[in-house]
Sequence to fold (556 residues):
Amino acid sequence: MRCFPLTIVGGARLGAAEYRLYRRKGVCNRPAADSGLLAELATQTWIPPCRSGNFRRAGGAARSAVLAALLAAGDAGEPIPPDAGILGWNGRGCVAEDEAYFRDYLEHGGELGQGRLFVPTLPTAPLAEAAIALGLGGEVAYWRTAPDTGRLFELAADRLRREPRVLLLELGCQEVTALFCAPGSWLHEPCSALAEVEFPE
Amino acid sequence: MAEAAIPILGCDLITPLGHGLEANWEGLLRGIRPFAPFARCELPTGPEPRAVRLLTELELEADEPPVLYVGTTVGAIELVESAVRAGTPPPDPLDVLLTCARRHFGATRAELVSAACSSGQAALAAAVRAIRSGEATRALAVGCDAVSEFAVSGFTTLGAVSATGCRPYAVDRDGLTPGEAAAALLLGSPESVSERGLPVAGWVLGCGASCDAEHATAPRADGEPLVRAIRQALGEAGIGPAAVSAVLGHGTGTVHNDAAELAALEKLFPPELPLLSIKGQCGHPLGASGLVQTALALAVLQHRKLPPQAGCRHPETTAQKRVGATVRELGPGVVLSLNLGFGGLNSAVVIGGAT
Fold:
């Protein structure tokens, strides 16, 4: 166990069929379609308002990031300061988006690609969409480090020296984990992915 | 509150202007624009992806193994291109570049930071924080992106590529010129550098970052979030806007980027503060931009001159007093380097001279 100078104020783990919240606990079934889940969350008073104009046009990773960030923000139960930042970490990267863009480009004669497929090829694209949705104006960056959540939480603690909150986002192959962190104290046994961080039962 | 200034022990860079700080400085002074039609570096041929060949041209040795931060947008993306053509699963282009960088520089630990076109300065900020926290006594920030069919086609699709060569801050600007570069800055802890009496090329005084939270690609027009990032960097440096002697801007030559950047500068600095975008000669090297800029800031500070703005014959109204057609002498002060990345990812770094 290591002690990190932060605390998790809200979190969400979003899968294809259900989602789990860190503070509120429990498992909730979700609509299969991302737009259906967004519509459902829009009716919940504990979910903060969000800008969702680009949601339908955004790629799957961006939609998952926005939904997980919304759920984590709602779970926090407090207004998220507008100067909070986002730290994306490891996960599946964006190779799938790279392939999708370039394959489409070649299939259409190799002259022009599609902008809606090109933009998601940046690993920060889903993070930026989450920032837009929640109005987060702090630093946004994607990190790739050794698979060690201890390292991730060191980075988060460093960010919290400059920002009041930081949202950690890991876009995995099966699920997305989003954790809002604040300065504090937290005992954690490092593991290899945010997806493995235990949520309280 | 001011944070500790971090010494820069050395740098190296390779751009379409050449290899090394001196070659690039001379190229900037001469105003050459090696666009044909993109801005490519002269590289040895080889089977490795272009980004790897770029990165491995860098020559920068540390007196002890450093921790390494690599800033890139698409890494060794050629591997995705060839895999898709062959119908085979591609390797992760970010992992490939990171692994190569770790091996090339003999790093004890290597991590990748991606923040769109602000990646290089994000890597530099990470290196600064590693030194300040006491985590490392040597930290290397490397930025690298190569011209690729992938990126060129993508930017063309977005309507972002100039038909005639980028014209940063020009009233008739019409887009960017795809470019490539690799650059590296080696940082040391002030205590160890002082103990060993090592020569210092310059100082990283402050870093700042922000997000527009506005649009997936276009920057926020009023430049306010960039102003925040600049204020953060100046705050870390413990100085105000009056201490800045020149700005190395992001200046891609797109309508929206340059407008947002100029709007931010107008809010903070007098209209005659000199401004230069190296993209007028290097093209847009994406994630490598910031480290090319901060390396060239060392030359600006050494010579106390700012090269002319290539490609800009008719500056935008708010740039008329900032960009110059000739070499300008600079007064005392620091250099501010700016990047604006897709998704509204802003970065500001303050560089001080060796003395």
Summary: The mean pLDDT of chain A is 95. Chain A has one domain: 2-196. Chain A touches chain B through 48 residues (CB under 8 Å).
